[in-house]
UniProtKB/TrEMBL annotation, chains A, B:
Taxonomy, superkingdom: Bacteria
Record-annotated FAD-binding PCMH-type domain positions: 50-231
Species this protein is from: Novosphingobium umbonatum
Cofactor: FAD
Record's protein name: FAD-binding oxidoreductase
Family: Belongs to the FAD-binding oxidoreductase/transferase type 4 family.
PANTHER family on file: BLL6224 PROTEIN, D-2-HYDROXYGLUTARATE DEHYDROGENASE, MITOCHONDRIAL
Record Pfam families: FAD-oxidase_C, FAD_binding_4
Amino acid sequence: MTDKHLQAQTDTTASSMAFLEKAAALLGPRGLTQDGDVMAGWLSDWRGRYHGAALALASPADAQELSALVKLCVEYRVPIVPQGGNSGMSGGATPDASGRSLLVSLRRMNQIGAIDLENRRVTCGAGVVLQNLHEAAEAQGLRFPLTLGGKGSATVGGLISTNAGGTQVLRHGNMVAQVLGLEAVLPDGQIFSALTPLKKDNRGFDLKQLFIGSEGTLGMVTAATLKLIPALAERRVVWAAVESIQAARRLLLHVQGAMGEALEGFEVIPHPSLEAVFDYAPDTRNPLDSAAPWYTLIELVADQAQAESLGERVEAMLGEAFEQGLLSDAAIAANETQAEAFWGIRETVPMAERAKGPAKQHDIAVPVEKMPDFIVAASDTMTKAFPGCHAVAFGHLGDGNVHFHVIAPEGSDRAAWEAGDGKAISEMVHDLVTQWGGSISAEHGIGQLKVDDLARLADPARLHLLRSVKQALDPLGLLNPGKLIP
Amino acid sequence: MTDKHLQAQTDTTASSMAFLEKAAALLGPRGLTQDGDVMAGWLSDWRGRYHGAALALASPADAQELSALVKLCVEYRVPIVPQGGNSGMSGGATPDASGRSLLVSLRRMNQIGAIDLENRRVTCGAGVVLQNLHEAAEAQGLRFPLTLGGKGSATVGGLISTNAGGTQVLRHGNMVAQVLGLEAVLPDGQIFSALTPLKKDNRGFDLKQLFIGSEGTLGMVTAATLKLIPALAERRVVWAAVESIQAARRLLLHVQGAMGEALEGFEVIPHPSLEAVFDYAPDTRNPLDSAAPWYTLIELVADQAQAESLGERVEAMLGEAFEQGLLSDAAIAANETQAEAFWGIRETVPMAERAKGPAKQHDIAVPVEKMPDFIVAASDTMTKAFPGCHAVAFGHLGDGNVHFHVIAPEGSDRAAWEAGDGKAISEMVHDLVTQWGGSISAEHGIGQLKVDDLARLADPARLHLLRSVKQALDPLGLLNPGKLIP
């Protein structure tokens, strides 16, 4: 190491120490820690795929504290990695290995405001856990209409920053559709406050959109005003067998036509994934007596006003579907326990697939009407190009969003396969999706997982816009570096 | 004039001539004109409040031609003023008086694509006139759920660029809610193309939002894919009398509770505005036998599935409202002619108010629940501060968006009053709206009309974001200069 390098490192250390001293004074002992044991759990993503290091873990109490902290970070050029529940799928909340970044948790901002019954909305801090928001809404006869597997850890701030999806997007939209207003701390420490929802506001383009789905690269969401809807009074969960993925799409169109806005979820599961679930969770049963190539899981709901007729309407719709040859068999969950069991199968698929051995998972979207053909074509392409591999697709058919897994040949070494064929497979899947006019990230975001493929595949105008806006708002590049923006 | 100035002017002229020559070669005779008679109609806004001059009027045939034209404008540093139907309310499509700008009409891009019945959407050019879009959708049993007074001239591109509202926003949202995808030419001539709608796409924040409501300052929309909904099968239009604006809000809550998504419009009109309509259009009749302080105009709709029960449900709802003292009298339009007559009254209000003499009009929004109190407080403030003035408020109560007019004392000289008290009144109204947490532009945009008040009243973080994004995408400041961005 040359003297110059040594000098630079010493300066960095001295600068870091000065920064940490000021940050500690600003945030107090609850707000800043360098304790390795406390930090450890937050320096890797929950799936254990990304591992990082950080100067310290900061937990500001509110937007004002965060604003002051960001100004300090700007002064000392300290990169910031914001984090909510750390249950993202793309490594967007894990710092790099340099240890130069400050990990900033928004979890202390976990206040849920009074529920506004008349306007059906609630303002809450970025750190509110989704499950707690669900419970607060339910206690007032209302519902927050977005849910997903990680609801016990995912926070409002993280859900907004990644524009999270889930199983109710078909009817209610992604997180972006739930956000009426928000507050964010900008990369220079300014607070952008637009919490009070206005139904109409044409003072230029919608600035809050800059913070929805931008993965903390343009600002950190500190609070949001969210939409609530009337509580569910009734639901019917249907498990139906179909002959092909194209048949599943025809069934979807039939259900949409017959049930309109009562249709809240439409998921598809191929038979091999059901078998994987049987292997993984031996207590699981097929809701139907016999096997079929594909299954669909359909959620139909009604609020108080429509509750009474729901069961009848669902039975009539299924009867017609059967007569028209749109399904080969179907079961309606007889009670809530059975309904939960049907959903349990769907929710177990990702774990069950993962347990079968090395696999590459892809969260992709193509235009809804092209999805069935895409699945057939992509499965075919992958198994031909990589003999011995299996492709399975499952998920949100109604949204044009499937999770497309390519499973390694039996007996493959995980590390070797993932670094070799696995990597090539993911690139090929993303190439295909792009050729079909789709997106390499439907609902999990870009994070660090897909940032190279975004650079490779996005058209120049899209990359130009992403980079220009990033450069404009965060010229020092301090906010969540290495994520999303190629 | 010094020699230096003279030299600069000659250079400019030589440069302009060279630019015009190249532009003419690029666009052909249909695509470029300097004919003063042809241009005249497009150099003033339709209300005659703004007058400008331009180098020429360009009408590119498609996005590719526009892209090449923009690159030429960049080369010669020629400012661009994009224009659709020229029926905006804030002077956003009128060039300044310098004559240095190129006026760019998008009206030739007026193709309506095939209507996609299965996915209920249509892709059309920026120049499609709203009325033509309505008719194309209706011919296929569908509906484009946004309408406004200027539907015979307003274009899809202009509606998107100004995020237009109208009378159906309560149920269907502004233009932003109708846009599934779009294509735009950026300030450097690149084409951003995102016409194919994906229900889910989490490759960062939603880039198309940059072009919705940004008034052509960040790019020019050339085409869009728009949402369609099932055609209306039935409607009921109700004219109801209430004692106060607060009572109107209570009635709104009642109708929302009883009718849910059948409620499509809820407008308020004060008695003085009805009298203004009588003076302006003497054939008009009050739908009710006696006068009341306020009237509400309520539009209730049903598609095929709900059509049969609509009349019955509306009558039951009104019966309850009457019993609960929420209204003093009400009339349901007996047929379409009467329904159109009820709406005709509402649509005549702006013209009737204008005919009464000089007035300052304000398109403002406050949180919906605060609107009644705001109207009372603001009317009181204005008439006390400016004795002899009258304040009237009418419009979209359900959206928290009223048009708030302050009318000059009788006998005032228009020009003197508008430049003096009128200007002071508008500033005071905008101050008040800002204090109430509202917006100085609910649906008409900022344009050149409100750009000074935006600079004066917007909080620093909002201005910082607007300016930073503008500077990033249009560093030369060539796109629609002097509009929206202070």
